[in-house]
Each structure stands twice: as C-alpha cells, then as structure tokens.
Specification:
This protein has 270 residues and is mainly beta. Strand 19 and strand 20 form a beta hairpin. The longest helix is centred in the first third of the chain and has 15 residues.
C-alpha cells in the first residue's frame, strides 16, 4: 500500500505542489520492505533495514544492510551481526546503534545495541541494561536522542546525556515536541543540537492533517517547531552533511529530495 501511495506521489507532485522525491539509490529499494535509513557522518554510506516479511511491521526477519551512496553501481551489503532489527542509526565514529524487537508468544521485547568495527569485524555491545533506546540518534558529545513509548514523563522524545563512560538518566524533551495523543519519534538532530527534524503522528489525524515531519530549532534553551509541508507521511529523517538532500522512508522504500525544496527558512542562505 505504501509503495502504491508513493507511486501516486511521483505522478502528482508537479500538479499538486508536493515536493519531488526520488529513490535514494538505484540499488536500495526492492520488492521487499526497506526502512530506517541513516547516513554516515561523511555522507558516504547508508545503513538501513530490509525485510522479507509481508506483514509489516513484523521485525522477525528484518536484516541490516549498508550501501555506498557515492558509487551508483554499489550493491547493498548484508551486515551479519544483527537480526530482528527494528531501527538503526550511525553513531559518532561510524559506530552503529540498533534496536531489535522479537516476539515470544504473546510477549514482545526490545534490546538496544552498539556495534563498533575493529580488527576486521564488528564488536557488538548490549546497552539495554544502561539505556533502552529506540530510534536513537547520537550527537557530538556522545549523548543520545531517542523515542520511548512508556517513559516516566510521557511518551515521545528523550535525551540521555553521555558522561564519557555511561548514559545518565534520560530527560523528556517536553510537550512542545511530544504533544498529548501523538507519537513523536525518530529525530535527526544536528551535531550542535541547535535543530532537529522528527516525525509526529497525531492519533486523531492518522497519516494526514497535522501528522508528518516537523522542523524544530532551539531558541533560548526552548524548542519551537513547525510542520514541513509537501512530503508523504514517513520517518527516518536524515540531512546530508552538505545540506543538499533530505532522506527519509515511508516504511516500504527509502527516498531523497532536495533540502531547499522543503522551504525551511533556517536553511536558506546557508
């Protein structure tokens, strides 16, 4: 269904004023489900999930892949150290954070990991006992922004400070970003934490209306946000280091568009 929706989007953007989107790479989107994109700090590589499961969002068969965006002939390469992947993101120094989700009968559980490439292989550390993060995004000082469904202060976006050795008690980012009766998640945050792009799903609106991508900037220590118009519903926001492209997923495929086409005042004349 999502594939069909974005096919219609391709055909209608020039007539209805939507933003023109295109596949992020010729060898990423397939007949399977591609999701959870994240670009490396240098903008060269993309890591994402691919699932053969027909019943989205079943994660039991979701694997982790990586592709070189700088090479149009590059093929997606399976990263064998993770399975049942719910979402993934690059961290600092090109480490990889990922959350997996498995079902045991009627029970569902998640775990949070960090993978670091060293000595010719990825070394994986389970961070679940320290922090149970989902849709994690690491910033310059090592801290993590992430989504938590059942957080102490409410569902939505949180930040966990990294003190150099461990993650400290997370802080809820407040109702300006995570409004009541919404799911605000999957934030892409600038290295200096002055701005972010995230997704808000409004229960009353479904995948239309107020639901969509939001741009937020920090002013005098407080976040203010505005909706980004002209895009289909999606998540997995990424901005390339050169500020040229915006990358996202609709849950079935991964797309890009020119950042300037989103008409975000913050990025003009940069």
């Amino acid at each position: 269904m999502r594939h069909l929706f974005c096919t219609i989007w391709f055909l209608s953007f020039s007539v209805l004023g939507q933003v023109k989107i295109e596949p992020v790479h010729s060898n990423v989107n397939s007949s399977f489900w591609e999701d959870s994109p994240s670009i490396s700090a240098d903008g060269r590589f993309l890591v994402f999930t691919r699932s053969e499961a027909k019943d989205w969002p079943d994660t039991d068969y979701r694997k982790l892949y990586q592709i070189d965006l700088s090479d149009p002939k590059s093929e997606a390469m399976l990263l064998p150290f993770a399975d049942s992947v719910y979402n993934v993101s690059y961290g600092n120094d090109d480490s990889i954070f990922f959350t997996n989700r498995r079902n045991q009968g009627a029970q569902e559980y998640q775990q949070f990991f960090r993978a670091v490439y060293a000595n010719g292989r990825y070394q994986v550390t389970n961070l679940t006992s320290e922090i149970l993060a989902s849709y994690a995004h690491q910033v310059k000082d090592g801290s993590i922004y992430y989504f938590q469904y059942d957080g102490k202060d409410g569902a939505g976006l949180y930040r966990a400070q990294f003190d150099g050795t461990q993650f400290l008690k997370p802080t809820w980012l407040g109702s300006e970003l995570s409004e009541p009766k919404t799911t605000s998640f999957d934030a892409f945050v600038s290295a200096d934490e002055s701005w972010m792009i995230f997704t808000s799903y409004f229960e009353e609106d479904g995948e239309t209306g107020r639901t969509g991508f939001y741009f937020a900037k920090k002013v005098n220590g407080n976040w203010t946000k505005s909706k980004i118009e002209g895009l289909p519903y999606g998540w997995g926001a990424n901005v390339t280091p050169d500020l040229k492209y915006f990358i996202f997923t609709d849950g079935g495929d991964i797309y890009k568009c020119r950042l300037e086409d989103l008409n975000i005042d913050f990025f003009k004349n940069r």
